[in-house]
What we know:
CATH topology of chain A: TIM Barrel
Largest sheet of chain B: 5 strands, mixed
CATH architecture of chain A: Alpha-Beta Barrel
Oligomer: heterodimer
Number of helices of chain B: 1
Shape of chain B: globular
Order of helices and strands of chain B: EEHEEE
CATH superfamily of chain B: Beta-grasp domain
Strand content of chain B: 35-45%
Structural class of chain A: alpha/beta
Largest sheet of chain A: 5 strands, parallel
Low-confidence stretches of chain B: none
Distance between the termini of chain B: 51 Å
CATH class of chain A: Alpha Beta
Shape of chain A: globular
Strand content of chain A: 15-25%
Low-confidence stretches of chain A: none
Helix content of chain A: 25-40%
Mean pLDDT of chain A: 94
Radius of gyration of chain B: 12 Å
Radius of gyration of chain A: 21 Å
Number of helices of chain A: 9
Structural class of chain B: mainly beta
CATH class of chain B: Alpha Beta
Number of domains of chain A: 1
Mean pLDDT of chain B: 94
Strand order of the largest sheet of chain B: 2-1-5-3-4
Strand order of the largest sheet of chain A: 5-4-3-12-11
Number of domains of chain B: 1
Helix content of chain B: 10-25%
Distance between the termini of chain A: 65 Å
Amino acid sequence: MNTTVTSPDPLTLYGETFQSRLLLGTSRYPSPTVLQAAIAASQPAMLTASLRRQTSQGDNTSGFWTLLKQAQVPVLPNTAGCHSIQEVITTAEMAREVFETDWIKLELIGDDYTLQPDTLHLPEAADRLIRAGFKVLPYTTDDLVLCQRLIDVGCQAVMPWAAPIGTGKGPINPYALQTLRERVRVPLIVDAGLGRPSHACQVMEWGYDAVLLNTAVALALDPVAMAQAFARAVQAGRAAYLAGAMTSQDLAQPSTPVLGTPFWHQP
Amino acid sequence: MPDADLNLLINQQPHRLPVGATLRDAIELIGLKPPFAAAINLEFVPRSQYAQRLLADGDRIELIAPVTGG
């Protein structure tokens, strides 16, 4: 957003355009310097951030705040750790004031062990946030009907998981993600569970509009190099989707013309 | 004799302030500087209301600041 270089194929969310199709989380990096370098290497569309209790002046908080400001990348605050709709609403309102943005990554956790979203209450939470003027990006499972309900209440993009947060397993249910892509018209962002650039490339090839990553980059041996690898994988997958892949088939077919093959003779 | 102090929970820690104290007093008590946001009893309180918002006995105050997130 707000860059001078314009892509012919920007990501559009809630009417705003972004030049990158990678959203990057800011947690679990070895150091703030590494995070900063990973941001520079991957040029993300948005950076996720959160809010936590503070009892005194923590240098970590002010350091992170400065880093966020310097990055000049739009911030996507999350409601991580919220277990009720009221917690979500209050956290979102606090995030709006602190980060000065209407964007919110809606996380409503239903199960602490798997961090699976509370699918029964997600549409109501999204509905209330949208009515309060938020641009809601809901973290959800890959359930088609749930995603449709989120769109029904006004979500202009939906963020299904590939696998549970932080597992790095990649798409554990390719059928569900591909079906969702075929049935749903709004932008879809795969959020959570990606571990390798090939996973990101795969979902982009399926027609997903963007990916949101954190742990896969932060916990790599070289997070900066991995951030760049993911950025390239996302671009490659997007380009492949637009190019249209051939249909796979069971029988081999020679690429090289058969006519005029030397030394060939009738057996 | 009735207790003249308010018993408060600020970020889950017990604190006492005199009757008539505002949210701004609570924030000053723990020495928090921006950026942060506040909620009382799970209800967001905008920055513009800190000085007017009177605290009540038993209020649960949450003061939260930006951190990294995924």
